[in-house]
Structures are given as C-alpha cells and as structure tokens.
Amino acid sequence: MSVLLWLLISVPLGAGAALGLGGRATDRSAPLLAVAAALATLGLAVACAVTRPEASAPLFTGIRAGLAVDGLSAVMVVTVAAVALAVLAYSAGEFGRDENRGRFFGLTLLFAAAMLVTVTATTLPLLLMAWEVMGATSWALIGYWWRQPDRARAADVAFLTTRTADFGLYLAAGAALAGGVGSLRLDALPQATSPWLHVVTAGAVAAALGKSAQLPFSFWLSKAMQGPSPVSALLHSATMVAAGAYLLLRLHPLLAATPWAGPLVAWTGALTALALGIVAIAQQDLKQLLAASTSAQIGFMVLAAGSGGVAGGLTQLVAHAATKSALFLAAGAWLTALGTRHLPALRGAARRYRLTGAAFAVGSLTLAGLPPLSLWAAKDEVLAAAHAESSALYAVGLAAAAVAAVYSVKALWYVTRPLPPSAERGYDSERHGTRRVPRAVPVPLWTLTALAAVLGVLALPGPASWIKRLVGAPAEPSPTVWELVLSAGVALAAAAWTWWYSSRPAPAPRAAVGWAKGWLGLERAAHLLVARPVLALARALAVFDDRVVDGTVRQTAAAGLATARLARRLDDGGIDAAVGAVATGTRRLGRWARRPQTGLLHQYYAQAAVGFCVLTLIVLLVR
Known about the structure:
Elements: H1 2-22, H2 30-51, E1 54-60, E2 63-68, H3 71-94, H4 101-120, H5 124-142, H6 149-178, H7 196-211, H8 219-224, H9 229-235, H10 240-250, H11 252-257, H12 261-282, H13 286-307, H14 310-338, H15 349-352, H16 354-367, H17 374-389, H18 391-416, H19 442-454, H20 461-470, H21 481-502, H22 511-517, H23 522-594, H24 601-622
Antiparallel strand pairs: 1-2
Helix pairs in contact: 1-2, 1-4, 2-3, 2-4, 3-4, 3-9, 3-14, 3-19, 4-5, 5-6, 6-7, 7-10, 9-14, 10-13, 10-14, 12-13, 12-18, 12-22, 13-14, 13-17, 13-18, 14-16, 14-17, 14-19, 14-20, 16-18, 16-19, 17-18, 17-21, 18-21
C-alpha cells in the first residue's frame, strides 16, 4: 500500500521537475502535461484517502522519514489535489505562449507536491523539508513576473516574513531532541520534558501563525497579491496559507499538553478573524479584499485549533478552500478581461460576464456565511468549540462572522451594480484587458463554486458526526439550534445592512479607514521593529568587521611585513655580511697558503730551516 503514497508524491514532483527544467522547450506541451499530472495526482489522492497507506524510510540515526494518510490528512490530500487540478486547468487558458509556461506549471506542481508531503508527514524532519520547498516555490510563483521590480520585492517580503516565522520549526526540532523525543515524530512531541515542551510548542505555533498570515504576520499576504491570479487561488485557498492552520490542527495534542498554548492560539485566531475582516472592508482592490478575507477566514481555523474543534476547523478549511479559490479565479478572469481589479472600475462586471458573475455571486454569499451555504454551517462548528471554551471567545468569533458578511456583500454589491457609461475609464489600470474572459474559466470555476456551495453539508448534524469520527474527535461540541439561528440572523442582518449602506453616497475617507486599508500598519511596524534594527545591527557589524576585525588583520599583516623586512635587513647586513667576511678571509688564507707551494726543493728546505729557527726561538722565549 505504501507504493500509492510514494506515487502520490512522485507524480507531481517528477512532472514539476521535468517541466521546470525544460523551461521554454516545454511551453507547448506544459499545460496538457501539467493537467494530466494533476488529474493523476487527484486519482491517487482519492485512492490514498480510501486505503490509508503508510510509508517510511531511514533518514538519520534513530529518525525516519515517515508519511501516512489518516482521517485528517485523507481530507487534505484530496482537497489539495482537487484545488491544484482546478487552478492548473484554469491556468492553461490564462497564460499565453509569450509566457514561460514550462516554468510556471513546473513550479506549481512542485508546490503541490511539497504541500502533499506537508499534510502527510509524520516526522518533523520531513515536514521541515516540505515546508522549505513550499516556501521557496511560493516565492518563485509570487515573483513569477520577476522583471517587474515591484513584484519581485513583493515576493521577497512574503518570503522573508514567512521565513522568519519558519525558524520556529527548527527551534522546535532542536528542543524536541533536547527534551527526549529522539524520533521527532509529530505524535510524540507532547512527550517532551519540561521546559523543552514549552519551547517545542512556541516554535511550532510561531511557524504556523506566520505561514497562515495571522497577526502579527498578516501583511505578507497583501504583498503576495502581486503574483498571478492562479497563484493567489492556489497559495491562498487550500495550500500555503492553510498549511499553518493544518499544522495547528494536527498538533492539537501538543497544544493541549501546554497550558498556555490553546488559549493563545484561540485568541490569536479570533482577533485575526475580526481585525483582518475590518481590513477587508476597507479595501478598494478586489484581490486585496480577498487576501484580507483569507487571513480572516484562516483565523476561524486557528480559533478551532486552539479551542479543540479539530473537525470544525477541518470543515472550515475545506469549505473555504473551494470558496476562495473560486473567487480568486473569478477575480483573475475579470483582471484578464478588463485589466483592473479596482472595485469601482469593476461595476457591472458580473452583468457583463454573466457566467463568471454568477459564480462570483455564489462564492461571495458562501463567504458571507449565509445559510444554507457551506461556510455558515462550518463556521458554526468552529463557534461551538469556541463557546465551549469561553463566552468571550464566542462573542469575538460571532462579531468576526458578521464582519465576514460585510466584506463579502460589499464585493458583490460593486460587481453587480449597473454598468455606468464611463465605466471603461477605469479599465486597463493593471494591464491591457482582452475584453473577454479566458475560455478555460467556466469548468474549473463552476466546479469549485458548486463544491463551495454544498460542502457545508459536512457540518450538518449527521455528516458532522461522521467527520468527527473520521478525525478521531467524536466528543467535540456541536452547535445547538439557537446558535445556528443566531449566526444565521447575524450574517443576514449584516449582509442586508451592507447592501443598504453601500447604496448611499460614500462618506469622505477617515484616518481609521486609511489605517485599516494599509493593513493596520503591520508592514510599517515590522520595518520599524524588526527590519530596521536588523539592518542597523548588520551595518554596525559590517563597520566592526571592517574597522576592528579587518583592521586587526591588516595591522597584523603589516607588522608581519615589517618584521620580515627587518629580518631581511639583518640577514643581508649581518648574517650574509659575516658569511661573506669568513669566505673572504678563507680565500685570502688560501691564497697565502698557496704562495709557499712553489714546487722548488731548495725553497722547501729554506722554509723548513726558517720554521725550525722560529720554533726554537719561541721555545727559548717561553722558557
């Protein structure tokens, strides 16, 4: 059975690598090959969800690379594969032959493969590897049009922000080893000894909140909107942004084992849902509105993870994935056709392109949480878990649900207004519009829209109990009748008020609106509190390195050269001179010694006589 699991990873990984390395050479065949690989991946995902295979391989001493499909990951592998297939099918008509389609489709498949490993990994090292690949490919996809500096900088901001939070997983891995969890299995992390258990939990929570664009990391999601619309639909629906929420749902036993972790995660999710919902209301850019709403909707999943509502969080994740990917594809279709994503310029877009408009309307009403659509029932499952934990937590979550209805209906109100005579003046602000939606839009868009509308059935009393048994949490609380009625009434009232209020003349923008439109100043705060101090420290260290470290090295080198020069002088003027003098004296002595050697016998006798006389005289004088 493990072969199925290895194939589930290998098919998108191999196809993505081949297309990515092929580049321009695969432009013509890339869409067809990518869709075929995604279709095969979906089939394998369904087979894995049914058969629940497990696989492992040795990685390090005492640590294995483990993969498994259980109740939680069974839902996720199908969701990821389905959304990837829909996005790739849409992208086949979105990217023309003037684009590097081999690179785009290859990177998308590699990203999907990394996400599949993320949701099936049972050990922390393998999860970390997939987490890194997912981050790197998302950076490349967001910055796909890298020749445009703004888009490249946006990709850098998104990557560096999530990368900063990702260090938490490395911290968690080291703390787990120090705490006695030598296998690094995810289900064994709660067994870490104190105080390492708290470090493991803190690292995992930080990484998850950063990846899911929760407070205070939310601003990177705004920058990520610079990427192509299919990238937004893929990364910000069921994959990258949802990966952090999935990790928290997966690690719920770890959160439960650490007293402070559950409340912290729950309140972070609830406050993100409320605050980023307000940010979404303030937006005039459709993709920015959808991005802020993504962060807010992921907040409900994080709230569920902190409150112990694993089944409710999973249902919310799946329903939101279908809804948000459909909305992003519709926004991308209008961007292609009209060249703008500015809401006032998109007035009448739903009337002009009726199929896309109808799908967007269903998706918006679903996102608003209106009954009987999917996110209404799914959100109530989350709120039921929150209510079991704290009434204050439930109240904040309910307020966030009302805000969700406001920003969803606001977007719908703009695109369904009658087309004004001067509408075309706002077109082509982003790029030149084709005045027609891509032909590949209807099938994936309406498939996702249908799923978005009906997936709420999973949260109804009967199917909900099945989902809870599937994820091994049958005792999770379910919403009561009054909770269902209350949330429906709040959503309907907020939606009706928004529709009425939007028809009135817009008041002059206030400072608070501008603050919310700028994503609460989170990016500015990150620059002020993190980026600037880090850069200042880097500059100070560079000066220290140049002046102190390098200066010391240079002074040491200069002293060495001076010592060498002195040694050379001593060698040349002293030792070499002495050696030269000895040699000169030796040569002179040699010459003097050669002079008596004439070869004449009588001279030798005379020399001997003189020598004898000198010797005799010395003896006499000494005595």
